[in-house]
Amino acid sequence: MNQKAIDLISQFEGCKLTAYPDPASGGAPYTIGYGHTGADVRPGQVIEQEEAENLLSHDIDARQKQLEPLLPQEVLDSETKTAALISLVFNIGIGNFKSSTLLKLLKVGDYAGAANQFLVWNKAAGKEMPGLTRRREAEKEMFLS
User: Fold this and answer.
1) 58 burial type by CB count under 10 A (0-12 exposed, 13-18 middle, 19+ buried)
2) Phi-psi region of 109 (alpha: psi -120 to 50; beta: other; left: phi over 0)
3) What is the pairing mode between strands 31-33 and 16-20?
4) 107-133 mean pLDDT
5) Cα–Cα distance between 22 and 27 in angstroms, integer?
6) 3.30.428.10, 1.20.1050.10, 1.10.530.40, 3.40.640.10: which CATH number matches 3-144?
7) 122, 129 in Cβ contact below 8 A?
8) Helix axis angle, 79-92 relative to 3-13, nearest 10°?
9) Which pLDDT score is estimated for 124?
């Protein structure tokens, strides 16, 4: 398990033990714990802290497995680069990442250009979100460290 990814995601997601609506839509998808979404999350649902931590571990593991076949080995060998990308994909989804300029730049070894692409992903429902800007800056910094 990538501890740097756990720490980064926990910092920006926070932990809410009661399901809440998406900030951009005001409805679905509902989120619980440390940013967990899915068909298993219902409005008003309540979980315990231990379940929130288990969901986070499961979600991070799933994102890492989605990323592994896409990334150059040099990126996978870097815990910080991988953690930053897990955090990004945790938030934007693997589908968006697969079609991103960031991934295209990674595949040709342009890591500086790829790092700058983190900042592109700071909007929800077309609006810039200050919290996403802070998160993308932290992910970029981690990626470059």
Assistant:
1) exposed
2) left
3) antiparallel
4) 94
5) 5
6) 1.10.530.40
7) yes
8) 40
9) 81
Residue 87 confidence (pLDDT) = 97
The catalytic position among 13, 50, 79, 128 is 13
Nearest to 83 by CA among 63, 98, 101, 58: 63
Where residue 1 falls among pLDDT bands split at 50, 70, 90? low
Residue 57 backbone phi and psi in degrees, to 5: -60, -45
Mean pLDDT of the chain, nearest integer: 95
Helix axes 130-144, 79-92, angle to 10 degrees: 160
**pLDDT at residue 13 greater than cutoff 70:** yes
Share of the chain above pLDDT 90, in %: 89
Tell me if residue 13 is catalytic. Answer: yes
